[in-house]
Amino acid sequence: MATIQLIHGPNLNLLGSREPVIYGHTGLAEIEQRCSTAATARGFKLQSMQSNAEHELIEAVQQTAATDVGFIVINPAAFTHTSVALRDALAAVGLPFIEVHLSNVFAREPFRAESYFSDLAVGVISGLGHQGYEYAVEWAAQYLVAAERDN
Ligand code: CA2
Fold first, then answer.
1. Which neighbouring-strand residues pair with 54?
2. 133 catalytic, yes or no?
3. Is 28's C-beta closer than 6 angstroms to any atom of ligand 1?
4. Which residue of 4, 12, 17, 144 is most buried, as measured by CB atoms within 10 A?
5. 18 lines ligand 1 (CB under 6 A)
6. Is the CB of 7 inside a 6 Å radius of any atom of ligand 1?
7. Is residue 66 a contact partner of residue 40, using CB atoms and an 8 Å limit?
């Protein structure tokens, strides 16, 4: 069974401790635990990483090519709006991915409505808080079940 890779971009290590009105009260560890439970319930493993450094996120994406990762769930955070390099890494690896945002990026400053990832993503979830990650992992698991069945 494949692995689902969760990738969190810069400043998301602060979740649960700052700006709860925008980003909620749930910390990264709890989000990862919930996603892991959702993946395991469907027979998949979940790996998770967070970095504040663009090159580490790029390396994490590149490394999936040498593993059994079959799907990526990524919140690129501020790199959503700036990083051609992270976009290129996802395009190069070619794995299906869902772009997740805790907040509704379309209801905030105009620059947050621009993403370097959305056109490559299988789908985008924005504004559903921490549950957005769980929905994405659920969807990824169903996608992988169907892909394994059809192969
Ligand atoms: O809504 C999201 O998930 C974002 O990806 C979060 C990014 C922001 O730049 C995007 O436009 C939308 C910012 C992440 C910062 O995370 C923090 C968490 C807690 C406290 C402070 C920042």
1. none
2. no
3. no
4. 4
5. yes
6. no
7. no
6 and 32 Cβ atoms separated by less than 8 Å: yes
Average confidence score pLDDT of the chain: 96
Residue nearest to ligand 1 atom 13, measured at CA: 77
Q: Encode burial over 64-89: b for 16+ CB neighbours within 10 A, e otherwise.
A: beeeebbbbbbbbbebbbebeebbeb
* Token couple for 51: 């970095």
58-99 pLDDT tens trace? 999 999 999 999 999 999 999 999 999 999 999 999 999 999
Residue 23 is among the residues annotated as catalytic for this protein: yes
- pTM beyond 0.70: the answer is yes
**CA 1 to ligand 1 centroid distance, Å:** 31
Can you read off the two tokens belonging to residue 58? 């790029």
Å from CA of 68 to ligand 1 middle: 29
CA distance 49 to 20: 21
